[in-house]
Specification:
Helix content: 25-40%
Number of strands: 20
Distance between the termini: 58 Å
Strand content: 15-25%
Radius of gyration: 22 Å
Structural class: alpha/beta
Number of helices: 13
């Protein structure tokens, strides 16, 4: 019988007869020997398949629509390049993401730029690169753009709107409610729209809304469509992203088809038939395609049993920031029976550096490999150098071959910015 957590790993994950996990044809012990641990491992085939699933689901139903990947979920040039090669645009939220998107080969016209506090430097990069749409979040964005756009040129913009939609996700990733730091309420949005329409340097293309992240019910996301429609008729409506991802066996997010159907039903009811629609999946695009591979460094059986690994909040802040639940397996011992309840903790000097609590495992030993599935979203994004931690590599695996697309930091890297 297959291990109960195997389906949290990328499609096609298997177990060798000796109990070793195999992803994309690669044994995890071989990956650990070649690339070390911790390592973020991406099944490239699964990643590409997910991009195609999103593109097909949307454009087969509404040809005048497009998918742009929310780069912040996994802002690696190699991941952005996969999205570009699979026919997607890119959503960027900062100067670095713009530059990596351009390195990935994206057509700048297919880039959507976000941010609630864009700097003049970032907007200059966007203008000079010819970024297709800048989503203005406030009056200051407009002030800066009007200073940067050359006379005789026009910069296309969207206005980000607070849709006043409550969502059932964690407060840290709710963005559609009144009081959010993102976007403008309807009255303020109308005033800014009127200002942009009167500007000779800006072209008012449409409106944008985003309800939040890790939302399982697509009806909550579709609820943002009517508030956008109430602001007027525009060529473009950007409906944001937000569909949840599966982290545990208990999670039941909507499928891509269910999500798209919900959005398009609302669009058919409220929006012009000839308007272009944009969606911006991030977490649900990349999360399932990756896992993080650790080595157990310490097992402490005392008041509780703590299994400590060689990473932690230096490569996964999701658990600490909003208590995201994960699962894990001893990746070389999947044939062993579970024997004890443990707490999986990281190596960092914080009591909050807890990856999983509780978790049922076979009796763990120092040197065991521990694999945490569903870590494609926001782990690489928020990796950091706490306690002098060297950020881990990103490894692409496919058809039995593996390659590093981002190398592990070296000790010397930690001091490269010293002056």
């Amino acid at each position: 019988m297959a291990h109960p957590l195997l389906d949290l790993f990328p499609d096609g994950a298997t177990v060798y007869p000796d109990g070793t996990l195999v992803i994309a044809g690669c044994r995890v012990d071989d990956l650990a020997r070649e690339f070390g641990t911790p390592a973020i491992v991406v099944d490239e085939g699964a990643l590409r398949a997910r991009a195609r699933e999103y593109r097909t689901a949307l454009t087969s139903r509404r040809p005048n629509a497009r998918v742009v990947f929310a780069s912040k979920a996994f802002p690696a040039t190699a991941v952005q390049r996969v999205m570009v090669e699979e026919g997607l645009g890119l959503d960027v939220a900062g100067g670095g993401e713009i530059l990596s998107a351009l390195r990935a080969g994206v057509d700048p016209a297919l880039v959507v730029m976000h941010g609630n506090a864009k700097t003049t430097e970032e907007l200059r990069i966007a203008v000079e690169a010819g970024i297709g749409l800048v989503v203005v979040d406030n009056e200051d964005d407009v002030d800066r753009l009007e200073q940067l756009v050359a006379p005789g040129s026009v910069r296309r913009v969207l206005v980000r709107v607070v849709p006043e939609v409550a969502s059932s996700t964690h407060p840290s990733v709710q963005t559609g409610q009144v009081g959010s730091k993102f976007g403008l309420t309807a009255g303020a949005a109308r005033r800014l729209i009127a200002r942009i329409e009167a500007s000779p340097l800006l072209e008012m293309r449409g409106v944008h809304a985003h309800v939040g992240s890790q939302i399982m019910d697509p009806a909550e996301l579709a609820a943002a469509v009517e508030p956008l429609a109430a602001l007027g008729t525009f060529p473009v409506y950007d409906l944001g992203g937000g569909l949840g991802a599966r982290y545990t066996t208990a999670d039941r997010p909507a499928s891509v088809d269910e999500y798209v159907e919900a959005l398009l039903a609302a669009a058919d009811e409220h929006l012009p038939a000839d308007a272009e629609l944009i969606i911006e999946p991030g977490r649900s695009m990349v999360n399932a395609s990756a896992f993080t591979l650790y080595t157990v460094t310490t097992v402490k059986r005392d008041a509780r049993t703590f299994v400590a690994v060689d990473g932690g909040m230096g490569d996964n802040l999701e658990a600490a920031l909003f208590q995201q639940r994960y699962e894990a397996v001893l990746a070389g011992r999947l044939n062993d029976e579970d024997a004890e309840d443990v707490v999986v903790v990281g190596r960092h000097c914080e009591s909050g550096d807890v990856l999983i609590d509780p978790l049922r495992l076979p009796a763990a030993r120092v040197g065991d490999l521990l694999a945490v599935p569903a870590t494609g979203a926001y782990t690489h994004t928020m990796a950091n150098n706490y306690n002098g931690y060297r950020r881990p590599p990103v490894v692409f695996a496919r058809d039995g071959e593996a390659r590093a697309v981002i190398r592990r930091e070296t000790w010397e890297d930690l001091f490269d910015r010293d002056v």
